[in-house]
Amino acid sequence: MTKQNKRVILVTGASRGVGKGIAEGIAQPSDIIICAARSMAEGTTVQQFGFEINSSLEDTVKNINQKGAQGIPYEIDLNKPDEILNLATFVKEEFGCLDLLVHAACQIHDDLITPKPYWEKSLDLWSVMDVGLKSNYFLSHALTPLMIESKGKLILQISSHGAMCYMHGPIYGAQKAAIDKMAFDMAHDLKPFNICSLSLWSGIVKDEKTQKVSEQHGEQYAEFLKGAASQEYAGMVINEIYQDSEIMNFSGSTLIAAEIGDKYGIKDIDSNSPQSDRESLGGPRKYSDTIIY
Fold first, then answer.
1. Which label site among 21, 93, 163, 239 has the fewest CB atoms less than 10 Å from its CB?
2. pTM metric for this prediction
3. Dihedral sign, CA of 58, 64, 68, 71?
4. What is the CATH number of the domain that holds 92?
């Protein structure tokens, strides 16, 4: 199958949270959007931080199809390298190309948000490194040859201000810092092939989890969520980056979604402009241009 002017897009973590929002927000008529995650069936819920959260690829695909794009659900456990390779094979055999790869999957562990020092938290937190860092590398490794062959355009990884401030403890911070640096280093290798590599800090997002928290603690979280973005906003921003004729000027960068959205004049679905948290949480680091093999 050839794309024939269609964008073929793969988004991981697309059953809920930022990944779901990106898959829906990026959708344009004629796009083919492969939505990868563990939760498949419509109406599926998961327990997260004491809340019951909707998590379904079929729900995501339904919303994508309503925009005139074609959503394709793909059930996968990104903890398993063989399943990652199977996904890469599926994309190659079914579509023969890949234009845009968005790594938005992350492993959530209840201990992340407990206010305890790292040695009192579960060692299972290491799973945060496996899904969202290791899985990003494995999937990029498997799909980059296809993107080179089919003249793909963008590999983007979702990160956060946790790379620069204390957020949820050492494991979370290390993972986010590593994602940013991995995107930077990938950019060097991808430059000869005109493929852009980026890390994007999505900022505070009004997803299923924050909506639940807001329902229970409305006044307490009202100020916190005032400048938050919708789930779809990051997808809208990624679309503008993708369509920018000077996209390679961004390659190797870590961008803040709210700031790049302002650059393009993007309004969120509620017509508001999400706020950057650079002043309170810090901004991306600047890496050296030195190259050592």
1. 93
2. 0.93
3. negative
4. 3.40.50.720
Sign of the alpha-carbon dihedral angle for 24, 26, 32, 33: negative
Q: How far apart are CA 99 and CA 31, in angstroms?
A: 10
**And the tokens for 30?**
């004629």
Asked if residue 288 is part of any domain, the answer here is no
Alpha carbons 116 and 168: distance in angstroms, whole number = 9
Q: Which residue range forms the structural domain that includes residue 168?
A: 8-274
State pLDDT tens for residues 52-82.
Answer: 778 799 999 999 999 999 999 999 999 999 9
Q: How far is CA 122 from the centre of its chain?
A: 25
Confidence category of residue 43, pLDDT binned at 50, 70, 90 = confident
The two structure tokens encoding residue 163: 């790379």
- The pair of structure tokens assigned to 135 is 């899985």
Residue 211 has pLDDT above 70, yes or no: no
Q: Tell whether 216 is covered by a domain.
A: yes
Mean pLDDT (whole number) for 199-209 = 86
Domain membership flag for residue 290: no
- Structural domain count, the chain: 1
Q: Report helix, strand or coil for 91.
A: helix
Query: Which is nearest to 229 in space by CA: 210, 205, 207?
Result: 205
Nearest to 125 by CA among 181, 170, 61: 170
